[in-house]
Amino acid sequence: MIGIVVVSHSRPLAEAAVALAVEMTPQTARPRIAVAAGLGPDTFGTDAVAIGEAIAEVDSPDGVLVLLDLGSALLSAELAVELAEPQPAGTVRLTAAPLVEGLVAAVVTASAGNDLEQVAVEAENGLTAKQEHLGTPAPAAGSDEVWAVQPQLTVRHQIRNRHGLHARPAAALVTGLRGLDATVRLRNLTTGKGPVDAGSITRVAALGLRHGASLEATFAGPQAAAAQARFQELAANDFGEPHHPGPGAVPGGTGTGREVVLAPAAVRSGEVNTGDYQPSDPATETARLAAATAEVRRWLARLAQSPAERDIFEAQQALLSDPELAEQLTGDTRSGTTAVDAVRQRLDEVAADFDALSDPYLRERGQDLRSLRRLLLLALTGASEPDPARAHILVVDELDAATAARLHPDLTLGVVTLTGGPTGHGVIVAGSRGIPVLPGCQQARQARDGDLIGFDPTTQQWWLRPGPELVAEIQDRGAARARELEAAALLAHEPAVTTTGIGVLVECNVGSLDDARRGAAAGADGSGLVRTEIVFADACQAPDAGQQAEVLVAIGEILGRPITVRTWDPGPDKPLAFVTAGREPNPMLGERGIRAVRRQPELLRTQLRGILLAARQVPVRVLLPMISEPAQVRWARELLEQVRAELTDPPPLPLGIMVEVPAAALRAADFAGLVDFVSIGTNDLSQYTMAADRGNERVRDLVPAGTAAVWDLVEATCRGLAGIPVGVCGDLASDPDQVSALISRGVTELSVQPPLVGLVKQAVRRA
Question: What is the 3-state secondary structure (H, E, C) of 1-52?
């Protein structure tokens, strides 16, 4: 196989191009690639010596292809080839191919075992697909006279990929057919383009096979039947990029997490029995600690099933690898403390620091530390946890991610936790498996192993040792809920239209890529609220525009529908490390949302740039939080226009505001000429209407979103902004019983929790 060298004035540019290209092929089939770029990590330039070393690194009798960026890179590369000692084993070819597109084409073509000449041709045709799309005359693609055999087999396939057969699925198609003695031709029946050789990624991509297009594949040669079967297998999997799951599918499980459950309790203590642990000398204890740490790291690496879970367990691995914590633990064992005691004491201390925080989301991160504590103790003692062999409801003090990852939906019908809330990592992981969870149920302390218990996650009701009559009522409720969920799932991917013909968008709230995946699986019409402060909650520094754009594009591509991106919304309940916040006597009435960002305008400027970059690839709207007066909108719009002026051909970007402050609702008409849409955040609107902090347990009962005053404010907003789309993204939108009332007041968009999309759509159809 040939070798490939990437020469660029910028090392980050070269490394990013390589990272993109290698994603197109499996690791086992990739050609060797070397980078010779930059004069240092932060210095632009090219170096002939470095290029020569890169050529030697990937040297092959099959030859080496060198891709370059700017003119002086060519001079450096020519000098490197001229001075090479010893001479390369094969031909070194410098190509005029575009750096990024050419590299992708070269890697895919080389991985199929093609020779240097073929790879170079494909690389130099790398711009063909882009030129075709933009209507720019492209170089001749070559003669079609190679199709000299009579076609034997033909297959037609409708493209289901949301963004068509772009580079990644095209690469999967090309590499998937390699090695077969067959000639495969592809034609876009929708546009008439083709036929083209299926072995050429540039020609396949240039077919312009968009979502819904009809693709015809024709096979000839000795292994035509095998090629046909391989093609059909690839097509069934949408060429490695499956479209959204079918109606009712939930990532990681078959349930929705809304089912009524009734089963015997399996009560489990979170404490590990260390009574049989035999202490030893400091050296042995230190070695035991190291071995246990390595074992837990392996456990965590195996546990994740979904991308969101990978993030959770990678975060736990990072905690486990924290140098300060590792140094403290090792110091303890070397000083004579047993590994068991060191783990118990140190991790309890760190967890207690999190428990003392005021923010409920960050407070629940203490759970991750206690999870690591338990896993380390299990590894140190060799203890095991009992696994009930029958269907049950698990009752635990708190549900950590590692425990949740081991739950099987067919056995663990539900989970009740004594402490914790809905944002715990264990709750998130269980939810990804469709397992209902009732968090923070103190009354469950009365439950004993084997007791019949049940709960309704929708109403938060729970039952302990119910009698025969109540059991029958619970079972009837469960059957009714199951029928409701099944009916909703069947139509989840269909539009939601009221009985009077009003179309209502039912979107999902997104705080992670996994939320987007769950929303897509549930049939969401896009996202009405991308919570960027949650998406980037773990960032120690503000992500740059490119980093933000990358994540937003990923969310948009997963959903395949428009997304609404809320700008930074920091506050005492959701702090951001990169947003400075001073001490305030009443922070819930202080610098939250847009108020905080106005003190650091560069944060918003960078974010708006990232959103505009994302809008070039996916449909995007931008949403400003905590708006209370028109002057705030004028300031943000002016900043947006400044950023737009810095970009070439900036895409359109509709601007909206959150109505969370009563003043904004009562004076909604004042915003009519300034905004393109509005989203009502009923959670904050309720607490500000009732002057009651929804995070304060003492006054939480004053905040129900269904109060008459809040309904009046919803109606005032819709009336004041007549003709402008009004949505709701708070908890009120996720309540199917309130949907009709919202629509009757003028609401036309609802952004809800992902699992509830189907139920809310059904509620719209009944309205």
Answer: CCEEEEEECCHHHHHHHHHHHHCCCCHHHCCEEEEEECCECCECCCCHHHHH
Beta carbons of 424 and 398 less than 8 angstroms apart: yes
Report the SS3 class of residue 228. helix
- C-alpha–C-alpha distance, residues 646 and 610, integer Å: 12
Report the DSSP pairing between strands 261-268 and 392-396: parallel
Continuous segment of H or E residues that includes residue 604: helix 601-615
Cβ atoms of residues 660 and 625 within 8 Å: yes
pLDDT reported for residue 247: 25
- What is the reported pLDDT for 550? 92
Please, which residues have CB within 8 angstroms of residue 153's CB and are 6 or more apart in sequence?
A: 218, 219, 220, 224, 225, 228
In this predicted model, what pLDDT tens digit does every residue of 705-740 receive, in sequence order?
Answer: 557 889 999 999 999 999 999 999 987 898 888 999
Q: Report the C-alpha gap between 693 and 703 in whole angstroms.
A: 8
Place of tokens 């999997």: 237
Q: E strand or H helix at 261, and its extent?
A: strand 261-268
The average pLDDT across 639-662 equals: 95
Band of pLDDT at residue 251, cut at 50, 70 and 90? very low
Average the pLDDT over 142-170 and give the result.
Answer: 62
pLDDT at site 248: 27
pTM above 0.70, yes or no: no
Q: Which token pair is 197? A: 């050789």
Could you tell me the two tokens for 97?
A: 């191919």
* Interacting residues of 444 by C-beta distance below 8 A, sequence separation 6+: 395, 416, 417, 418, 438, 453, 462, 464
- Residue 336 CB burial class (10 angstroms; 0-12, 13-18, ≥19): exposed
- The closest of 379, 254, 393, 372 to 315, measured between CA atoms, is 372
Which CATH code for domain 3-126? Answer: 3.40.50.510
Fold of 153-240: Histidine-containing Protein; Chain: A; (3.30.1340)
Q: What is the pLDDT of residues 530-546, one digit of tens each?
A: 999 888 876 767 889 99
Query: Residue 136, SS3?
Result: coil
Strands 92-95 and 392-396: unpaired
Is the per-residue pLDDT at 138 higher than 50?
Answer: no
Residues 6+ apart with CB under 8 A from 346: 325, 328, 329, 332
**Where do the H-state alpha helices sit in 237-364?**
282-303, 307-320, 323-334, 339-355, 360-363
54-68, 239-253, 281-295, range with the lowest pLDDT: 239-253
Phi, psi of 38 (to 5 degrees): 70, 160
pLDDT at 681: 92
| Domain 392-488 indexed as CATH 1.50.10.10 | no
- Average pLDDT over the chain, rounded to whole? 83
Cα gap 312→261, rounded to integer Å? 27
Kindly list the catalytic residues.
Answer: 425, 729
Query: For 273-381, CATH number?
Result: 1.10.274.10
Parallel, antiparallel or unpaired: strands 3-8 and 261-268 = unpaired
**Least confident segment among 441-445, 569-573, 625-629, 635-639:** 569-573
Strand partners, 43: 40
Q: Tokens representing 246?
A: 């079918």
Q: How far is CA 353 from CA 347, 349, 360, 362, in A?
A: 10, 7, 13, 10
Domain chopping of the chain, boundaries? 3-126, 153-240, 273-381, 392-488, 496-582+590-766
Whether the predicted pLDDT of 244 surpasses 60 = no
CATH class in words for 496-582+590-766: alpha beta
In this predicted structure, the answer to whether residue 147 has a pLDDT above a threshold of 60 is no
Q: Is the pLDDT of residue 281 over 90?
A: yes
Taking the CB of residue 247, how many other CB atoms lie within 10 A of it? 17
